[in-house]
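A reminder from the course coordinator: this example appears on the midterm review sheet, so study it carefully.

Given structure:
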């Protein structure tokens, strides 16, 4: 029987995100690691490798495929109530001990992570997305930046069919990969996991490329929402949460910030699960810093108003949610508050198409 690595080696093509170095050496520019890769070796992610002076990258398969509510990504300010046709490949450039998608993200590092790849092509995926009534196609479940060539092939097809496109990413990007994505990608969810360089090193990344990328993603006009998974004892101090919120406000107070609850997962089983009080405290910090849209997630229905969108000017309730379900939608056709006409930042359809989450999801 073939090993996972042998299977994946059959599902590659030449990559486009690279720089040539001396001899057969090259530098991959798909993520902030910018690995210099000698001939015969892979990069840190284990899935992009140099063979004969050429970069080979994943192609032609998915390891996870599911139509989710777009609120689950989470995007709260992009096409509420719509479905996100979500796909993932295998591998990640980080190795977070609390990863909630470790079965796909750590498949090449951890022999206990098993998620068999399934061959497919962009046309079949987009056909399937349309049949399922999707509003957007989203690369998620593993780190999408490291499989950007494949994502762009799918996004070109998706855009042609009138669908929006999205990334659910750790944000460890480079200027090169963002330029490459810009023509085809609409929505960017970024995990800002900490504001502490030492904590990021434990997860396998440097903080600066991530902070630089968040600024760049905003400046380049992608729609961006930020998530911080609040882990007790790791990143939940008032000081650290305030640093994150202040950093985001300085870029734009209109960036939605989702503070979400940690549940014991993968190798991180020491800290307790995040409680409602901690999420409320984090949300207060975000609001006091000046962020206009702060949400609490992963504790469905127990965070009072913190799943709802309110007008930042008159505080009228504009989108009411319970978990991922939109229960009431009052935004005007041109994306403003129905009471005071303040513009609400986001990507909105002129008409609310209704809640699609009752759709029978196929896994
Ligand atoms: S995607 Fe990132 S980790 Fe993987 S080879 Fe490229 S630079 Fe290295």
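Designed residues:
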């Amino acid at each position: 029987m073939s090993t996972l690595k042998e299977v994946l080696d059959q599902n590659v093509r030449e990559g486009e995100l690279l720089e040539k170095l001396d001899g057969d050496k090259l530098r991959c520019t798909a993520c902030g690691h910018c690995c210099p890769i000698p001939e015969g070796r892979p990069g840190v992610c284990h899935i992009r490798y140099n063979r004969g002076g050429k970069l080979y990258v994943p192609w032609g398969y998915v390891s996870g495929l599911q139509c989710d509510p777009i609120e689950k990504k989470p995007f709260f300010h992009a096409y509420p109530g719509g479905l996100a046709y979500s796909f993932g490949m295998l591998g990640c450039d980080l190795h977070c001990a609390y990863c909630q998608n470790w079965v796909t993200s750590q498949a090449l590092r951890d022999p206990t992570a098993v998620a068999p790849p399934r061959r497919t092509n962009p046309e079949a995926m987009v056909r399937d997305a349309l049949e399922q009534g999707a509003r957007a196609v989203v690369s998620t479940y593993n780190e999408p930046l490291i499989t950007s060539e494949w994502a762009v092939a799918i996004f070109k097809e998706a855009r042609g069919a009138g669908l929006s496109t999205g990334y659910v990413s750790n944000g460890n990007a480079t200027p090169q990969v963002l330029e490459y994505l810009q023509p085809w990608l609409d929505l960017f969810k970024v995990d800002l996991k900490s504001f502490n360089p030492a904590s990021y090193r434990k997860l396998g990344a440097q903080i600066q490329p991530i902070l630089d990328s968040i600024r760049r993603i905003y400046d380049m006009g992608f729609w961006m929402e930020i998530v911080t998974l609040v882990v007790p004892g790791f990143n939940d101090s008032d000081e650290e949460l305030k640093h994150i919120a202040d950093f985001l406000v300085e870029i734009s107070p209109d960036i939605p910030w989702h503070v979400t609850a940690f549940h014991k997962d993968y190798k991180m089983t020491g800290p307790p699960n995040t409680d409602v009080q901690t999420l409320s405290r984090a949300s207060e910090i975000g609001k006091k810093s000046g962020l206009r849209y702060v949400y609490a997630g992963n504790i469905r229905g127990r965070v009072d108003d913190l799943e709802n969108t309110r007008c930042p000017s008159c505080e009228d309730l504009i989108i009411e949610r319970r978990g991922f379900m939109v229960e009431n939608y009052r935004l005007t056709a041109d994306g403003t508050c129905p009471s005071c006409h303040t513009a609400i930042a986001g990507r909105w359809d002129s008409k609310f198409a209704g809640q699609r989450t009752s759709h029978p999801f196929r896994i």
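The two ends are 26 Å apart (CA to CA). The first strand starts at residue 12 and ends at 14.
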